[in-house]
Structures are given as C-alpha cells and as structure tokens.
Design goal:
21 helices; 2 domains; nine-stranded mixed β-sheet; N-(1-d-carboxylethyl)-l-norvaline Dehydrogenase, domain 2; 471 residues; 57% helix; NAD binding; 3-hydroxyisobutyrate dehydrogenase; alpha/beta
C-alpha cells in the first residue's frame, strides 16, 4: 500500500526527472516538508539534487538508483522527464516504476508530451501491466524555473476520471506547486486534454521565445541602449498598472539572460523545440495552418544544430550571426546585446533613441497580434471554443508563460465581437496599428535590418499579416 507520512500530513512522493524544472519543483516540495525520493538517469544531476536537499533544514529527501526504487513507498509519483519516450521508459522499462508502484497510487505526468500519449500510457498500465488501480493524471506545467521554485506554476490537469483530481494525496501535491490551487486548472475532456491546453499556450511561447530574441537583436543593431529598451518594455504604467503594448512574459523572462555575458541555464533550446514539434504534429493531425509558429520553428531548428543544450536566450546570438559564414560578422556582433546595455550610440540624440524604442515596441506588438490570432485558430481546431472553454484557456495563457499585453486585450474582444474572431482582429489591428506611419516604421525596421545582414523573419512575416488585416 502507498504510505502516508506519519510525521505530518504530506504524502510520500516519488519524483522522476530532475532537470531544470523537475529539480525546482521537487526541491520546493522538500522545502515544504514532503518526503520525496528523487531519481534522475544522469548521475551528476542526482548528486546535485542530493546535495541541495541535504542543505534544506529538516529535509526528508532520499535518492534512488532506479525509477522502481523511487516509487516503492510512494502515494504520488511525479514524472518531469524530457518527452513521451522517457515517460514510457521511466514507467515500463526493466527497472521502471510500474514494477514497484504501490496499489492505488497516483501517477502524475508533468512532462509536455503529445495529447494522444496520456491515453497510450493508460492503456499500457491497464492492459499490458494489469494495473487498473493506478490513477493517472495528465498535468503539464507552465511558468519556468522561478515559479517552480516558488510553487506558483500554472498547471493544466485532466484525467480519465475527473474524481482522480480530488484524490487527497494527489491534490495536496498539485496544489502545493500551483499557488495553493489558485493556478491549478482542471481541463475536461479526458486524458490528453491537459496536454491540448498546454499546446495552446505553447503556440504563444513558441513564437514569443524567438521573437524576444529577434526584437532585442533589432534594438542592438539599431544602436539602442538594450537595457533601457528592456526596462521600457517591462515597466508597468504607474497610473493604470498595465504593461506596455510590446510586453510579453517571455521577453521579460528571457531579457535578463540576453543582457548577461554569462547567462545561467534555465531552459534549453531543445525544450521549446520539442514543444513546438508537438504543435506542428498537431497542425497536420488537425488540418490547421500556423504560419508564424512555423517560421518560429524554423529559426529554433537552425539554433538546434549547434546550441540544442544551451539556454534558449542564445537565440538572439543566432540572429546576430553565430550561424553566419561571415566570421567577421560573428566576432563583431555576437555579444552586441550585452555591449549595448547602458551604451547607446553616442551620436544618437535621446529623442532619436526614444523614437526607435517606441517603433521597436510597436513592432514587437505586431508579432504578438499575429501569435494571438494563430492561438485562436488553433483553439478552434482543438474544438475549445465553447464559452466556458474560451474563458478557461484565456485565463490560463494570460497568466502563464504565453502571456502578452496584446493577447490580454485582443482575445476578449474576439470572444465578444458579434461579427466573429476575424472581424475582431481586423478592428483591433485598425485601432492599434492602423495609422499609416505604423506600417511605414515597421517596414523601415525590416528593410534597415536586412541592409545590415540581419533578417527579422518573424517581424517580416507578422508585418505581411498585419497588412492583410488592415486591407
């Protein structure tokens, strides 16, 4: 039987997968008081986890030598591994968890995997291993390492029986890492529904991660103080509390790492590449087209060739030339974002710099407009457009890593417009970007960048879409 701690009311947790997110989530559980047994296939990671937990006062953490050993006394098992292949391996291989899962325990899949995979795992548990007693919860997360550490992740949960979400031990674990339940979103629709909701959020993330790099690189080549540009786009209006129109969660989160000469590893390029790959597979399955997402994917794919394991803030360096055959370009520009921080072009006046910052902020907002539109199109393809569903996924994304100022403004209008989503986006485009000088300024930014051998692929694609909306 699964074991409940006698020292307190926290259940025994087996945690498999101690990469950046899993490390942060599991150590948060340990700090809270949960007895956690951790396992990672990579020995140095497991050693670092053990050392970190040893420094936590009254730690009740242990390490295991296999997934089976990690779960043998667990009430709740959390899987935060890289992909669905690793989920199957951790559960079903020779030393997999299934061989030691206590009766009636709950397995929570936190990994982002294809929406069809949770049902496949359920089928294998029941048919292949005769474990219908094991509860399975599909629970992908959003929010990054910082919110993992703080226990404030956005989590999208679903199951083949929604009563599983109310099982006391599983509920205790989930609520502890999701703002005491405030950012825990039950998604109806059975196993895989949580992954579908996460995929919707990842349309935004998959575009916003490279677009944050693209726009920061544009600031650098346009001789703007990159630190000032970051500060302008992330500072809320003192009177309204609103973020600037060009703000996105990803820009605010990745910006400091782009501005650092030695950024910490927080989220490898391979992670967003995997998530975007899931969406592209869903595009084919659902027969929907997401051109801007695909353009973002193409940029990420190029970075993967040389920087798969690097923090994805390195994408800015791809734009600045590390993938170029021109060695002189790489040497001159590789660290230009860092060099420009606090150092604008001396010959430029404050008025000129402020004008360029405003134009770049507007350009970034244009990308966000198109990413919001593609998100709405993807939601339609996923059949997530009933009133209660729309409200739910809007709340999830606007409060998670896919959030942007434009998304928070335009999506409610799209929901409420009697003329439909497309009409609402056209009206919003005219309202925010309809003046003649907006298109002209963004066009100038694109053309000027190309003259410097800098190709703003996302902005160019978004500009074409804006012109269509304004036509």
């Amino acid at each position: 039987m699964a074991v409940m701690s006698t020292a307190n009311q926290f259940p025994q947790v087996g945690f498999i997968g101690l990469g950046a997110m899993g490390f942060a989530m599991s150590t948060h559980l340990v700090r809270t008081g949960f007895p956690v047994t951790g396992f990672d296939i990579y020995g140095p990671t497991l050693d670092r986890w053990r050392s970190t937990c040893d420094e936590i006062p009254e730690s009740r953490a242990k390490t295991a030598n296999s997934p089976a050993e990690a779960v043998k006394n667990a009430s709740v098992v959390c899987l935060m591994v890289a992909n669905h292949h690793h989920v199957h391996s951790a559960l079903f291989d020779e030393n997999g968890a299934v061989h030691a899962l206590p009766k009636d325990c709950t397995v929570i899949i936190h990994a982002t995997i294809p929406p069809t995979q949770p049902s496949t795992v359920r089928d294998r548990l029941t048919r292949e291993f005769n474990r219908p007693d094991v509860r399975l919860i599909d629970a992908p997360v959003s929010g990054g390492v910082a919110r993992s550490i703080n226990g404030t992740l956005t989590i999208m949960v679903s199951s083949d029986d929604m009563k599983n979400l109310q099982e006391p031990n599983a509920k205790t674990v989930l609520e502890n890492v999701a703002s005491k339940g405030k950012t825990l979103f039950p998604i109806p629709g059975g196993l895989g529904a949580g992954q579908s909701a996460k995929a919707l959020n990842q349309v935004q993330c998959g575009i916003h991660i490279p677009s944050a790099s693209e726009i920061m690189g544009l600031a650098a080549i346009n001789s703007v103080d990159t630190q000032k540009f970051y500060d302008v786009l992330t500072t809320k209006d003192a009177s309204t509390g609103k973020t600037p129109l060009g703000w996105s969660w990803m820009f605010e989160n990745r910006g400091p790492r782009m501005l650092s000469a030695s950024p910490p590893m927080a989220s490898a390029t391979a992670i967003i590449n995997k998530d975007v790959g899931i969406i592209r597979d869903e595009e084919v399955r659902l027969g929907v087209e997401l051109p801007l997402l695909n353009a973002a994917s193409d940029a990420i794919t190029q970075v993967m060739k040389t920087h798969a394991s690097a923090d994805d803030s390195c994408i800015v360096q791809y734009y600045l030339g590390f993938n170029s055959e021109r060695a002189d370009l790489v040497v001159q520009r590789a660290d230009l974002v860092v060099q420009r921080a606090g150092n604008p072009e001396p010959s430029a006046s404050k008025q000129e710099e402020d004008g360029m910052i405003g134009a770049l902020a507007t350009a970034h907002a244009v990308i966000h407009l198109v990413s919001a539109y593609e998100t709405a199109q993807f939601a339609r393809a996923l059949d997530l457009m009933r009133p209660e569903q729309k409200k739910q996924w809007f709340n999830i994304i606007s409060g998670a890593a896919g959030g942007s100022s434009v998304f928070s403004e335009v999506i409610p209008r799209a929901f409420d417009d009697a003329d439909g989503i497309e009409a609402a986006f056209r009206k919003y485009a005219r309202d925010k970007f309809g003046s003649a000088d907006v298109v002209a300024k963004v066009t100038d930014i694109v053309d000027g960048a190309k003259r410097q051998a800098y190709v703003p692929k996302l902005l160019e694609a978004a500009l074409a879409n804006l012109k269509t909306l304004l036509a």
